Amino acid sequence: MTRVAVLGAGSWGTAFALVCADASSDVVLWARRPELAQAINERGENPDYLPGIALPAGIRATSSAEEALSGAEYVVLAIPSQQLRTHLAPWSALLGPASVLVSLAKGVELGTAKRMSEVIVEVAGVEDDRVAVVSGPNLAKEVAQRQPAASVVACRDAGVAERLQKVCHSPSFRPYTNSDVTGCELAGATKNVIALAVGMAVGLGFGDNARASVITRGLAETTRLGVTLGADPYTFAGLAGLGDLVATCSSPLSRNRTFGEKLGQGLSVADIAASTRQVAEGVKSCESILDLARRHGVDLPIVEHVAYVVRGEMTPVEMLRSLVSRSAKPERHGW
Ligand SMILES: NC(=O)C1=CN([C@@H]2O[C@H](COP(=O)(O)OP(=O)(O)OC[C@H]3O[C@@H](n4cnc5c(N)ncnc54)[C@H](O)[C@@H]3O)[C@@H](O)[C@H]2O)C=CC1
Ligand SMILES: O=C(CO)COP(=O)(O)O
């Protein structure tokens, strides 16, 4: 039986652990707080992040990273992007020599502008052919309810991607392989920022034209950034690109879209952040993605405008007005 360690018992870590257990793996789920690990083991559910969803018997929780990592062939990192480096550093010495590291996080690191797979390679000191990414339209609650969903397993090494694909191919979860790690990661991180912009439009009371326009132009700028950084343009038309963008920008389950909606309704960043324990990655990644784009001379107007709102330099209505009144141009200008 394949041994999988999932580090991070938030909503997506727990849902992904359930997928791997459904796909017949032996899963150990690491929670930061011992009381959460205990509750998961005693109640067979994660009361803080996925209440009411029964977890399969194949999942065992622990707050000891050493216990979770012991013998793990796949080490799944389900920690928010800005916390990944700090958490991974002490775990690196505990990793098996052939273990595969899998990132679930959708963000870009502040300060370094690095993608999560780059952070993992640097901190764990492993080659990038041992680092994989899972990204797609995968709202945790729906996945945990075993509603059908597809996703992408990306790794530079095709053999590693195919083996990981089997590890998480359950009766309700269908992963496809892809070798474009850069494209999948940039798509996953940037869609969170686009979802903030869509949420603001919804919160302001605008309808489907505004939503579809922001989604489509958001995809255009994401593709422009990705292609400049060497990604495959087709990735952005796939599950990790358009698929995740549509799911996140349409669903009230999305934390990023909901965060944006509250901004559109007039609440402040600080008040919204204080009202939830869950991460809306786009609130921080708007700055790191903008930083990355500037380092490569790429124009990302929607991401830039979301950053203005998050910094308090524009209101959501000013943001949308400013985006609409930008200088006229052809729909396709470069990628
Ligand atoms: N929830 C979802 O539907 C999906 C989430 N993701 C991505 O997965 C990653 C993890 O997200 P979730 O599990 O949904 O997050 P969550 O907010 O539900 O849980 C966060 C997890 O990280 C841990 N953590 C460690 N240090 C933390 C800190 N300083 N602050 C906050 N939490 C900390 C928490 O204990 C918890 O286990 C994010 O990058 C997210 O974008 C990807 C696909 C789906
Ligand atoms: O990434 C997600 C769905 O694929 C979840 O999006 P949120 O982080 O906005 O909830």
Outline the structure in words.
The protein is of the alpha/beta class. Helices cover 50% and strands 12% of the residues. The protein has helices spanning 11-22, 34-43, 65-69, 81-91, 116-124, 140-144, 158-167, 181-203, 208-228, 239-250, 255-264, 269-274, 282-295, 301-311, 316-324, and strands at residues 3-7, 26-30, 59-62, 74-77, 100-103, 131-135, 149-155, 173-178. Strands 3-2-1-4-5-6-7-8 form an eight-stranded mixed β-sheet, with helices on both faces.
Short description:
Catalyzes the reduction of the glycolytic intermediate dihydroxyacetone phosphate (DHAP) to sn-glycerol 3-phosphate (G3P), the key precursor for phospholipid synthesis. It comes from Tenggerimyces flavus. With 335 residues, this protein is an alpha/beta fold.
